[in-house]
Amino acid sequence: MRFILFCQKLSPLRRLRQPILFTMLAVLVGAPLAHAVSCSTESQMTAAERDPIAQAARSLGSEIQAANVNGVRQATIPAVAAQFDPVAASIQAVSPQIQGATLTVNGIYSLKASDLKSTQDTQFFCSVPGSALIVTITIPQLPPANYALVIMHATGVEHPQQVSLLLQNDGPGATGWKLAGFFTRQMTAAGHDGVWYWTAARNYAQKKQDWNAYFYYQTAAFLLNPVDFVSSPNLEKLQKEMQLVRPAELPGATPLVLKAGGQSFEITSMRTDTFSGALDLVVNYQTKDVSNPVATHTEIVELMKAMLAQHPELRQGFHGLWVYAHADNQSPYAIELPMSQIQ
C-alpha cells in the first residue's frame, strides 16, 4: 500500500499530458481561419527543402538530450527566448529520459504561412502521397511566417519519447530554422505502445467491458498522437471507436455520484497513469475535509470498494487504483492500492 499527503511530483504519463506550446506571443483574438497557407509532407519536399529542416531538428534534439538549455535558447526565435523559463524546465524534465537514446526523424511537415495578413488561427491540410488521406495541423494564433513541424523518436532507452519541434524559418540554410514550439510525449506506458492499447481496447469492447475499453482507447490516443494539434484519419477512427464505448455515467460537465455505505462520493475526473510502473486508474473526488488522515484513508478505501463493486471488470484491466481526495482550501490526500488489496 502507498499513501501520500499531497503528491506534488507528477508521473511521466501525467506530466506529459500537459504538452507546452511555446509559440510566438502575438495574439489577434477572433481572427478567421486562414486560406493563404500550404503544407508539404516529407516525401513532397525536395532535398534542398528537407535537409536543412532535418539538420536543424537533429541539432536541437542533441542539445535537448544534453540538457544544454543555453544552446537551445540561442537557437530559439526571440519572442520565445525572451520568456524561456518554461522551455528550460521542459528540457530539464525530458533530458534524463532520452540521454543515450537514438534520435530519428519520424516525420517532417513544411507549413508555409508567410502570406497570412495577420496572426490567425491557422489550419493546414497535408495530403498523404498515394492516398486520399489528409493529415490536419491546426495551430492557434499563428503569425505570418514559414514553419516546419518535425516529429522525432528517441528510442533505445527505458522510456522512449516522442520529441516534436515547431520550427520557424528566419533565414536561409539550417541556421535559419529556429525553435518556436517544443513538445514531448512518451511512446509507451507500462511497457506497451499505443497500438497495443488500441488492440486491447477493441478486445475489451468485444467482451462488453466498456469501462476498460474506454480507458484503454484513451491511453492509446494519447500515446499515438505526438502533439494535440495534429489529426489524422487513423486518430479520428480511434476517437470514434472510443466514443462508442464511453460509459454514460463518466464524470464530465457533472460529477459521477457513487453511493456506498450511506455515503455519496462526487467523482470529478478519471484517467490512467503509470505511477507504479504499471497501468493504474486514477480517480479524483471532492469531499468536505481531508485534515484527518485516518478518516480520509478510510473514506478513500470505501470509495475504492464501491467502485470495484459496481465495475468489477476494472480488476482485470488495471494494476490498482489511485484515489485523490480534494477539499476546499486543503492539500489533496491520496492513496494507491493494488487490486489484490481492495477486498
Characterization of this structure:
The chain is α+β, with helices and mostly antiparallel strands. It has three domains: 178 residues, no CATH class; 54 residues, no CATH class; 86 residues, Alpha-Beta Plaits, CATH 3.30.70. Helix content is 32%, strand content 32%. It contains ten helices and 16 strands. Helix 6 runs parallel beside helix 8 and helix 7 packs antiparallel against helix 8.
Summarize this, please?
The chain has 343 residues and is an alpha+beta fold.
Compute the gyration radius: what is it? 22 Å
**Sheet bearing the most strands, described?**
6 strands, mixed
Strand content: 25-35%
Termini Cα gap: 13 Å
Please give the count of helices: 10
- Look at the structure and give the mean pLDDT: 88
Percent in helix: 25-40%
Give the ordered list of helices and strands. EHEHHHHEEEEEEEEHHEHEEEHHEE
Topology:
Elements: E1 2-5, H1 12-15, E2 38-41, H2 47-65, H3 69-74, H4 78-81, H5 85-98, E3 102-113, E4 120-127, E5 134-142, E6 145-155, E7 161-169, E8 177-186, E9 188-189, E10 192-193, H6 194-206, H7 210-224, E11 230-231, H8 233-245, E12 256-260, E13 263-273, E14 280-286, H9 293-310, H10 314-317, E15 320-326, E16 333-338
Parallel strand pairs: 14-15
Antiparallel strand pairs: 1-16, 2-3, 3-6, 4-5, 5-11, 6-7, 7-8, 9-10, 12-13, 13-14, 15-16
